[in-house]
Write a structure and sequence with these properties.
By secondary structure, the protein is an alpha/beta fold. About 40% of the residues lie in helices and about 15% in strands. An 8-stranded mixed β-sheet has the order 3-4-2-5-1-6-7-8, sandwiched between helices. α1 crosses α12 and α6 packs across α7.
Length: about 280
């Protein structure tokens, strides 16, 4: 099983990674939950920010609606701080700022607000400063932002606040259709809001080895994007689909299933890529 014994991280500024793809049903939330769990299992302190009004990341981590007194809506509007909204999960070293349906109105409410595209970036910055000044225990090494399935103001806030983007990409026919649009959006954000933003990598999800199309899509993506595509492929797996109904990551629901094992390998691959980026 996993070693969830307590260990304090020594890195002050977290790496902020947005999980983004405007196409729904590609595995963004599943990846956020299980990647966060896998990183926590290898001694990283992780915060998941649920920026999707549907709140599936919160539900999948076992956070009930009555626990969501403060949500990412309150963070974006400036009513509360990130530390106010943090909820502990059943996984040691993994916390979440949950989402509520209030986020549906955030785009309209923030339309006339100053620095509306930097609301999340500013909130994360204040949290890091407070953690250092007050010696708070919540010293995260990774912040994972689960974006909504659209390129709206919420997603732009996530991209403006992030160091890199993780792009889950479903191994099916229309997978590449919206990828070029997302890449153009990332380029625009880099040119206007966040010059340091990069694509950390493409995660191939829902791979079915019995389906020739899955292999063809995977080959096409690698041909177009080369080493931006992670070696690890997330298979289509029933246990991964079942886990959210129990309010658990797949890694806790069944850590031996192929999907869970794939997310453990993905976490290791991301850590290795992070080390190369820091060394560059």
């Amino acid at each position: 099983m996993f070693n969830f014994s307590k260990r304090k991280t020594t890195r002050n500024k977290p790496r902020v990674l947005a999980l983004a793809n405007q196409k729904g049903g590609v595995g963004k939330t599943t990846t956020a939950i299980n990647l966060g769990t896998a990183l926590a299992a290898i001694d990283e302190n992780v915060l998941i920010i649920d920026l999707d009004p549907q709140g599936n990341a919160s539900t999948g981590l076992g956070v009930n609606r009555n626990q969501r007194k403060i949500s990412t809506y309150d963070i974006l509007t400036g009513e509360k701080s990130i530390d106010d909204g943090v909820v502990e999960t059943a996984i040691p070293r993994l916390h979440v700022v949950p989402s509520t349906l209030d986020l549906l109105g955030a785009e309209v409410e923030l339309a006339e607000v100053s620095r509306r595209t930097f609301r999340l970036k500013d909130a994360i910055g204040r949290h890091v400063e407070q953690a250092e000044e007050l010696g708070l225990n919540r010293n995260y090494s990774y912040v994972l932002i689960d974006c909504p399935p659209s390129l709206n103001l919420l997603t732009i806030n996530a991209l403006a606040a992030s160091d890199s983007v993780l792009v889950p990409l479903q191994c099916e026919f229309f997978a590449l259709e919206g990828l070029s649009q997302l890449i153009r959006t990332i380029e625009r954000v880099r040119n206007t809001l966040n010059p340091d933003l990069s694509i950390h990598g493409i995660i191939l999800t829902m791979y079915d080895k019995r389906n020739n199309l899955s292999g063809q899509v995977a080959d096409d993506v690698r041909a177009h994007l080369g080493d931006k595509v992670y070696d690890t492929i997330i298979p289509r797996n029933v246990r991964i689909s079942e886990a959210p109904s129990y309010g658990k990551p797949a890694l806790l629901y069944d850590h031996t299933c192929p999907g869970s094992q794939a997310y453990i390998r993905l976490a290791s691959e991301i850590i290795q890529r992070e080390k190369r980026l820091r060394a560059a």
